[in-house]
Predict the structure.
Amino acid sequence: MATITTAEGHGRTGGDALDGGIDATGTTVGATARPIDPELKQRFERWTEIDADLDGLDEATTERFRRNRYDTALFDLPRSAYWHDPESVDAICDIPYLPDGGYEREAGQCRGHLLDIYLPHDAVVRGGHTTPVYIDIHGGGFTYGYKELNRNFNTHLAERGFAVASLNYRPAPQTGLKGQLADVQAALRWLRGHLSEYPVNPDAVFITGDSAGGALALLTLAIETNADAARAFGVDRPSGIGFTGGALVCGVYSLAAPDAARAAGCDSIGYDPSRRIKLEGMLGASFFDGLDAADPTWLTAEGVVANADLPPLFVLTAGDDFLEADSLALCAALSRKGADFELSDVKPGRHETLGHVYPVGMTWLDASRRALDDIRRFSYDRC
């Protein structure tokens, strides 16, 4: 019997600070704010911050973050009832990848510095070091969610023959984009030093991320493969974990400041300035502090592809994904470079909805099962 810890009520965002439902000031458009239910809030805090990390912010900023997180969790709530862990997967949860990793905030611990590892039970029984690895970075508009948000996706990916390491990182406003990338680097360094303790192949490591996590995954690949990118993001020493490939799910890649993109001639059809504007409206302009050296070269899909030698990528979106254009821009750049990639852009049927990050948020759909199977095929063919 596989030993699987349970996590109640975790879901996946279908609309967050990146969505068209949030205006440039971070306000939900066309919606009446519901009162915050204390019982639901406590439930949501099993997979996301709501407001426990907002001390010291002014009232308007506090309410903006609280409302965005709570409303996104409300969207996830009905989906969470369908989530389950396959019996064939083992879970090792809440491993600190930095010394302060933990849940006791008053003691100086940081929930954002924990990770989970999911293993096919058959790989545990057999032993050896042959199971490929996926490292997952959850999405949520850079401010919503922790690793528990993606547990269902992770366990269903593990069911298909992967070890999956699911990473926490500090959500905004605890830190900015530069700090989140530093957290990912710390987790990768921990994993590089400990993969030998698990029945996995350390030479077959892939990365995945959805929505904001897709951006963090793409930028991490740039940092790992290009010294200029590492310097631009303030990383002195990349982990060197060595990625065999990746699967990017409905990512946001138009992160450059509009003025910087325009001045550098990077404001092509593949770049959407509204993404950065909406993120600054929700997260504050300080979210992008310390990244002048990265902007715009490393904050557009075209810039990353042109300047970094990326490993093979499986890029997934959908016809009704509000970030579809960003994935198409990434694939267009990969195609022009002659890179190894595969695009999955499923068009929903008549009277059907797939939407943003559908294989992460709704693993039970036939389209989601096919997407997970395609990720397996793509990855196994390259390791």
